[in-house]
Specification:
Blueprint: H1 10-25, H2 43-51, H3 54-58, E1 61-64, H4 71-79, E2 83-87, E3 97-100, H5 102-108, H6 112-115, H7 118-124, E4 126-128, E5 138-140, E6 145-146, E7 152-153, H8 159-169, E8 179-182, E9 205-207, E10 212-214, H9 232-237, H10 239-255
Parallel strand pairs: 1-2, 1-5, 5-8, 8-9
Antiparallel strand pairs: 2-3, 3-4, 6-7, 9-10
Length: 267
């Protein structure tokens, strides 16, 4: 199946289609998995297992993706009194994260269960810029496939890697901030099937309803935004990237040769 993001990496495209097909055949997805971070049977149990880990219990501030598969994770974070940051879907706002806390929701008389749904979170949460955010203790990302060595792929849009790179640029994610996913066991595949590129962020933990895998990944963590790997449509469609790129554009313009005047003298 072709999606909006098909065609950037042939092997990953094939792997995603295989996983989506497998989840559907095995009735392991909730709703149609194709083209999505798949919502999966056992997502609530995986969230419970994640909440039993010390990396979760020690975390005060959590960043989580907005997909349905991680609704139980977002709900548990708020129930446990953590500050939750959720990315605005497709990063369509300059302030590309929503901040949620149980206290704010209580003041608005909004239930935690409601606010864990991305659409509701966008209306009851507070849109924040990077400058307004607290350092993040734990990152949860959505995956279509994950490998026990830390390799991962989302649905192909590259949003998770972009978010993490920007958060690192602003000092909100550190070199040792744990990165976790919750998935169905069918989404855990051999490392050899998951080619990782320089801008890809690897997983430190994979949590399913049945088990917890600490990857002890050997993949190097990217250091901030890799401008060379950004696609032109990402710069066109994501406002915060255009804003962050502006100083670089000005610098390039200032370094370009200055245009001479008609009389041949330099300006």
């Amino acid at each position: 199946m072709k999606t909006d993001w098909t065609g950037y990496h042939h092997d990953k495209d094939n792997l995603r289609n295989e996983i989506w097909s497998l989840l559907k055949q095995q009735a392991a997805s909730v709703g149609d998995p194709f083209g999505h971070i798949p919502n999966f049977v056992g997502a609530e149990l995986a969230a419970e297992k994640l909440a039993s880990l010390s990396i979760w219990q020690q975390a005060k501030t959590i960043k989580c993706n907005p997909d349905s598969a991680q609704i139980p994770v977002r709900m548990r974070a708020l129930q446990d009194g953590k500050r939750l940051y959720m990315a605005v879907p497709r990063l369509t706002d300059d302030r590309c994260f929503v901040e949620l806390t149980a206290e704010d929701l209580q003041r608005q008389n909004v239930s935690i269960a409601e606010s864990a749904i991305a659409r509701k979170a966008l209306t009851c949460g507070r849109l924040v810029s990077f400058a307004e955010m607290e350092p993040i203790d734990l990152v949860i990302v959505g995956c279509v496939a994950a490998g026990p060595g830390g390799g991962r792929t989302g649905k192909g849009a590259g949003f998770a890697d972009l978010e993490l790179a920007m958060l690192q640029e602003f000092g909100l994610v550190e070199i040792d901030t744990p990165i976790v996913t919750t998935v169905h066991p069918l989404q855990v595949v051999a490392d050899s099937l998951l080619p990782m590129q320089a801008h890809d962020w690897a997983l430190n933990w994979i949590v399913t309803a049945q088990e917890v895998i600490e990857t002890n990944t050997s993949y190097p963590r990217p250091t901030g935004l890799n401008w060379d790997s950004l696609r032109s449509e990402q710069l066109e469609q994501i406002p915060i990237l255009r804003k962050l790129n502006e100083p670089r554009r000005r610098l390039r313009r200032s370094r370009s040769p200055r245009v001479g005047r008609e009389d041949g003298k330099k300006e």
